[in-house]
Specification:
Catalyzes the transfer of the enolpyruvyl moiety of phosphoenolpyruvate (PEP) to the 5-hydroxyl of shikimate-3-phosphate (S3P) to produce enolpyruvyl shikimate-3-phosphate and inorganic phosphate. InterPro entries: Enolpyruvate_Tfrase_dom (IPR001986), Enolpyruvate_Tfrase_sf (IPR036968), EPSP_synthase (IPR006264), EPSP_synthase_CS (IPR023193), RNA3'P_cycl/enolpyr_Trfase_a/b (IPR013792). By secondary structure, this protein is an alpha/beta fold. The chain is built from 14 helices and 24 strands. It is 31% helix and 25% strand. The protein folds into 2 domains: 5-22 and 233-427, UDP-n-acetylglucosamine1-carboxyvinyl-transferase, Chain (Alpha-beta prism); 24-211 and 227-231, Enolpyruvate transferase domain (UDP-n-acetylglucosamine1-carboxyvinyl-transferase, Chain, Alpha-beta prism). The protein is globular and about 60 Å long.
């Protein structure tokens, strides 16, 4: 069977300045909250990629008016009472969309909606949001007793909940906080391990009820609120591919500008520093409550490390590209606490191990850990396993020696134009 592929090899160092597309997590949430607001607001520099276009369509199906305005979106909100969708909502490949939407729809009294997604999303665990939402009173049914999509939601009155997250997941936390906006009483979520806090920051940006106390986050029923413009920072998870590429290719120096540097997202910077990376960054401004700044990476000899397990939730989407760096270091890298990676768009632990082996790297795979022997890779072909992050991470792993990436179009889920940006930085030398 003929499959699309892309052959990549650097001709020289990566040099230059880049602004990566908008943050995926902030774009999903910005579209949802603007859809719930009254009046019109703009989402400035959002991510326009597979996942977030699914969110724009979903919110339009629920009654929001969303128009493109150059690089931006202009959103006319429906207010707190959404419209019943006329058809099934297709969440595509986006776990964030499906989980947050379940929370948003659970308390829309009388509204009926069915959510589905692509083959990958229909395999992913939904019980983690369905169970606590049911404890709030939600009526959600689906395959496997509600653990897999397609899922049907019938909006009903909800009551607040006091809940401790059993897995570190910003999606579960956010689904419950969104449901809490429509619930009687207080909704309280405890996270024993911190995860990305974009929902909390955006609630504050839009004037929605939110309190933080140690590991607890609380919200309560929302009053109608006005729309407000929101600037979306560059996505640190997208920037990470260029930071690692610059570290690996001799002579490189790359600066990423306008990138989100929220400390709940930047665990990778700490790990790369510990590996010996020449990295500098500065937080310059805050947009919509999000820290934004620049990061510069210069080619560096790297050494293996044992990653602190508590950093994994702060870099959960950057593990594939960390594995790419680990293939090039001197010594061994141990990456623990990876059970959540088994239930992403692909089983990322297995996808990482298989692609490293395809590039001649020695790797040991445990149930929730990887041990990677550094020393460099040999030219080879890599398989994205229908997963955007795997496609981009292994393009970077093989870049210094030459790599064939099958089905490179998967990158478009979070970063249309990724390969063009990568090639442009190499040619800029
Ligand atoms: O809340 C979010 O926007 C996200 C949370 C993370 O998922 P989990 O909540 O499953 O950890 C992350 O992997 C995903 O890319 C985006
Ligand atoms: C896990 C990811 O996204 P989601 O869960 O929204 O599909 C990701 O972007 O790496």
């Amino acid at each position: 069977m003929d499959r699309p592929f892309l052959d990549l090899k650097v001709e020289g160092p990566l040099r230059g300045v880049l602004r990566v597309p908008g943050d995926k997590s902030v774009t999903h949430r910005g579209l949802m909250l603007l859809a719930l607001s009254e009046g019109e607001g703009r989402l400035l520099y959002p991510l326009k990629a597979g996942d977030t276009l699914s969110t724009a369509k979903a919110m339009a199906a629920l009654g929001a008016e969303i128009a493109e305005e150059g690089p931006h979106f202009r959103v006319r909100g429906v207010g707190l009472r959404l419209k019943e969708p006329e058809d099934v909502i297709d969440c595509g490949n986006a776990g964030t969309l499906m989980r947050l939407l379940l929370g948003l729809l659970a308390g829309q009294e009388g509204l009926f909606a069915v959510l589905t997604g692509d083959a990958s999303l229909r395999r992913r665990p939904m019980g983690r949001v369905v169970e606590p939402l049911r404890a709030m009173g939600a009526r959600i049914e689906g395959r496997e007793g509600g653990r897999r999509a397609p899922l049907a939601v019938r909006g009903v009155p909800l009551r607040g909940l006091r809940y401790t997250l059993p897995v570190p997941s910003a999606q579960v936390k956010s689904a419950l906080l969104l449901a809490g906006l429509f619930a009687e009483g207080v909704t309280e979520v405890e996270e024993p391990v911190p995860t990305r806090d974009h929902t909390e920051r955006l609630f504050l940006h839009f004037g929605l009820p939110l309190e933080k106390e140690g590991p607890w986050v609380r919200t309560r029923r929302a009053e109608p609120f006005p729309a407000r413009d929101l600037i979306v920072p560059g996505d640190f998870s997208s920037a990470a591919f260029f930071l690692v590429a610059a570290l690996l290719v001799p002579g490189s120096e790359v600066t990423l500008e306008g990138v989100g540097l929220n400390p709940t997202r930047t665990g990778l910077l700490k790990v790369l520093k510990a590996m010996g990376a020449d990295l500098e960054w500065r937080v310059e401004e805050g947009e919509g409550g999000e820290p934004v700044g620049w990061v510069r990476a210069r080619h560096s000899p790297l050494k293996g490390v044992s990653v602190d397990p508590s950093l994994i939730p702060l870099m959960v989407d950057e593990v594939p590209v960390l594995a790419a760096a680990a293939a090039w270091v001197e010594g061994e890298t141990h990456i623990p606490n990876l059970s959540e990676l088994r239930v992403k768009e692909s089983d990322r632990v297995s996808a990482i191990a298989q692609n490293l082996r395809a590039l001649g790297v020695e790797v040991e795979e445990g149930p929730d850990w990887l041990r990677i022997r550094g020393g460099g890779v040999r030219p080879g072909a890599v398989e994205p396993f229908h997963d955007h992050r795997i496609a981009m991470a292994f393009a970077v792993a093989g870049l210094p020696v030459g790599v064939r990436v099958y089905e490179p179009q998967w990158a478009e889920i979070s970063y249309p134009g990724f390969f063009e940006d990568l090639k442009r930085l190499c040619a800029a030398s």
